[in-house]
Design goal:
single chain, 387 residues, alpha/beta, Rossmann fold, arginine biosynthesis, ligase, pyrimidine biosynthesis, CarbamoylP_synth_ssu_N, ATP binding
């Protein structure tokens, strides 16, 4: 079975022939590449990858197996998985299973034994595109039939995937240590690490379904609101934008990451656009424009905010002055927004960095400080009382 054939087909007709990896069958999604050399289990279980076939640029994948501690959610979310050289053995004391078996168990179709470097260069040159992995019997389908299947798939542009990845039932994580307040988290594909970091800052963390209403948020009397990462096109999330505008008008402190950054951009009145091949991995250099400090950051996004860099602009939606707080040094993409007249900020990357560097973990402290500086009647502890 290990020698079952497999083929990866891009919508432009490019084909890569290899061996089946994981479950057999077919899968369709948007082909993207991730540059992290470690953390494949966190990548696989990141809900932001829903609908995407992930190509690992690191050649050797699977040597540390899988464990029950590192997943970022309850399941694997990638549509497909592409690796060059899967490990034949598991050699880590924390492992309780192999990656291959885990992919089979969760019905994730993958392919191995292809030139992932050539594939990555193709996606960099032509941009991310629809793709399909066909393995086992599906690998033997006529090439024209496989290509037709790929080209019939929906593009990521215009897709609202929040309902697919969000929790269906609200739940709460209690604050660790001294409680300073509570935060309402809109789950658009939230990662477990994010919730842990918020709890560690003294927040009762209320995780809410993506279809929650503003009245339901108000009923919780939160000290602040948080928008998580998640998959899909921010341009297709009008309801989340309207909800966030209600939050901002109410004066609730707000922090957003990744998809949450894009939705803050839209709520402030700016546009969003699709990047040619996006940012995915744990080695993206981002500069804080205020301090000049460069951070190595973790990313997973294919869309970005269209806001003026290097100047303070006025929110087209009437929320006062706004500055672009962080910029990607590779391609000058907006990586953060800071509202100067209301308590709201966001970053495009992942300060929880699982897996990845911890250069940006201070942003959770910044959020905590902002909440303490803008107390609500619901019982947010003031900065003096929390010491």
């Amino acid at each position: 079975m290990a020698l079952d054939p497999a083929v990866l087909v891009l919508e432009d007709g490019t084909r890569y022939t290899g061996r089946a990896y994981g479950a057999r069958g077919r899968t369709i999604g948007e082909a993207v590449f991730a540059t992290g050399m470690t953390g494949y289990q966190e990548t696989l279980t990141d809900p932001s990858y829903a609908g995407q076939i992930v190509v690992m640029t690191a050649p050797h994948i699977g040597n540390t197996g899988v464990n029950s501690e590192d997943p970022e959610s309850a399941r694997i979310w990638v549509a497909g998985f592409v690796v060059r050289d899967p490990s034949r053995v598991v050699s880590n004391f924390r492992a309780n299973g192999s990656l291959d078996d885990n992919l089979v168990k969760e019905s994730v179709v993958g392919i191995s034994g292809i030139d992932t470097r050539a594939l990555t260069r193709r996606l960099r040159d032509a941009g991310v595109m629809r793709a399909g992995v066909f393995s086992g019997e599906d690998a033997r389908l006529p090439a024209e039939e496989q290509l037709a299947v790929v080209r019939s798939a929906a593009s990521m542009t215009g897709q609202n995937l929040s309902g697919t990845v969000s929790t269906t039932v609200a739940y709460m994580l209690p604050a660790e240590g001294e409680r300073i307040g509570s935060v309402a988290v809109l789950d658009l594909g939230v990662k477990t690490s994010t919730l842990r970091y918020l709890s560690a800052r003294g927040f009762d963390v209320h995780v809410l379904p993506q279809a929650v209403t503003f009245a339901e948020i108000q009923a919780l009397q939160p000290s602040a609101v948080f928008y998580s990462n998640g998959p899909g096109d921010p341009g297709a999330s009008d309801a989340h934008v309207e909800l966030l505008q209600a939050v901002l008008k109410d004066g609730l402190p707000f922090f957003g990451i990744c998809f949450g950054n894009q939705l803050l951009g839209r709520a402030l009145g700016y546009g969003t656009y699709k990047l040619p091949f996006g940012h995915r991995g744990i080695n993206q250099p981002v500069v804080d424009v205020v301090t000049g400090r460069t951070e190595i950051t973790s990313h997973n996004h294919g869309f970005a905010v269209d806001a003026p860099i290097g100047e303070i602009s006025t929110s087209p939606a009437g929320f006062g002055r706004v500055e672009v707080s962080h910029v990607n040094l590779n391609d000058n993409v907006v990586e953060g927004l800071n509202a100067l007249d209301i308590p709201a900020f966001s970053v495009q990357y992942h300060p929880e960095a699982a897996a990845g560097p911890h250069d940006s973990n201070y942003l959770f402290d910044r959020f905590r400080d902002m909440v303490l500086a803008n107390p609500r009647e619901s019982g947010t502890t003031t900065g003096t009382e929390s010491k």
